[in-house]
Design brief:
434 Repressor (Amino-terminal Domain); Rossmann fold; 13 helices; 6-stranded parallel β-sheet; 6-stranded mixed β-sheet; alpha/beta; elongated
């Protein structure tokens, strides 16, 4: 026999109407204390209650049981899985759309009368389009990751500009002054903010950053090794874990000693690409942004304070020491012909 709202009400020790309001996010659910709503949802989960989704959609005009997630194909899988797990625990399903499927996403959200949208797309123009679409169609939305959107929709993220400033200052504290920025092309909001954070750290130390020490092009082994030969940095500040891993592998493969000759620090997600050495890194506190974003999505408010522009910048990054950082060498090496100095090729010859 299926579980009903009356069973849930008995378990949670509340009235059936409260169960109905809480489980379908009825406006009157705001009259119920948060801890009581949590108790109702926990009771429903424990009993295996499944609400009648089609009936809910008919009554409200919305499908309030499915959340649309717009993200990028290369987003951290662990982050999306964490989001899915949190939503499932609350009784919601997740429908995923990648950046290239934005038009399809809009069509299906309208066709299926979805009420909730989470946007993790890092491209500012695309974020604005999502916000405009949701605003025009009365859809509730939240944004994860760096970048502001406005129009009443908050974005939940760490202050990634401050995060890069902290990372660069960490290298300064080790004694480095020849710190290069491994940046990549400025496609995303976070890239631009992290670039500015690198510059902020230099200004804090009364120095002007050398534009030639900033690699803001597509990464290639050839150009990167040529840069190391020419500029001889003692440290790399990397805007993400993928760039840091590629640089680490290329340096070690071509005979450069990390961290004895070059230190590497990076901003990374929760999951880090595998590498020969553990990369020193700064990360977002696990799950905090998601927790506050979902709280706001379903209730219209959250426990963490928001800035006036709607962007949450109150989260402090977490520093994880690694094997790739050390004080600078007493004498900076003079690299020669790194591009042909492939120690693996030499070994196999």
């Amino acid at each position: 026999m299926s579980v009903t709202i009356y069973d849930v009400a008995k378990r949670a020790k509340v009235s059936p109407s409260w169960v109905s309001w809480a489980l379908r996010d009825h406006p009157r659910a705001q009259e119920i204390r948060q801890e009581t709503r949590d108790r109702i949802r926990n009771a429903a989960q424990e009993l295996g209650y499944l609400k009648n989704r089609s009936a809910t959609t008919i009554r409200t005009g919305f499908n309030a049981s499915t959340v649309a997630l717009l993200s990028t194909e290369n987003a951290h899988p662990q982050g999306n899985f964490s989001l899915l797990t949190r939503l499932n625990a609350l009784g919601y399903e997740l429908r995923f759309y990648s950046l290239g499927e934005q038009k399809k996403a809009f069509e299906e959200i309208l066709a299926n009368q979805l009420r909730y949208v989470i946007c993790k797309i890092p491209v500012q123009d695309a974020r604005v389009q999502v916000a405009e679409f949701c605003r025009a169609n009365g859809i509730r939305a939240v944004f994860l990751g760096a970048g502001t959107v406005g129009m009443g929709y908050p974005a939940f993220a760490v202050d990634t500009r401050r995060e890069m400033r902290q990372l660069t200052n960490r290298l300064f504290s080790l004694g480095h002054t020849e710190i290069a920025l491994l940046c990549g092309v400025h496609r995303y909001c976070a890239t631009e903010l992290r670039h500015r954070g690198y510059l902020d750290a230099f200004r804090e130390h009364g120095r002007e950053a050398d534009p030639e020490m900033m690699l803001c092009d597509e990464y290639s082994t050839r150009s990167f090794l040529h840069f190391v030969e020419r500029k001889r940095p003692t440290a790399l500040a990397c805007i993400d874990g993928l760039l840091a891993t590629r640089a680490l592998n290329d340096l070690i493969r071509h005979g450069v000693h990390v961290p004895d000759e070059i230190s590497i620090l990076a901003i990374t997600g929760i999951d880090v690409p595998p590498s020969i050495l553990t990369i020193g890194r700064f990360t977002e506190p696990e799950g905090i942004s998601e927790q506050n974003a979902l709280e706001f999505l379903f209730s219209g408010k959250c426990s963490a304070p928001l800035t006036e522009d709607g962007l949450q910048l109150k989260l402090e990054s977490v520093y994880h020491p690694g094997e790739t950082e050390a004080p600078p060498p007493r004498k900076i090496p003079r690299y020669r012909n790194l591009q042909t100095n492939d120690i693996f090729r030499k070994t196999s010859a």
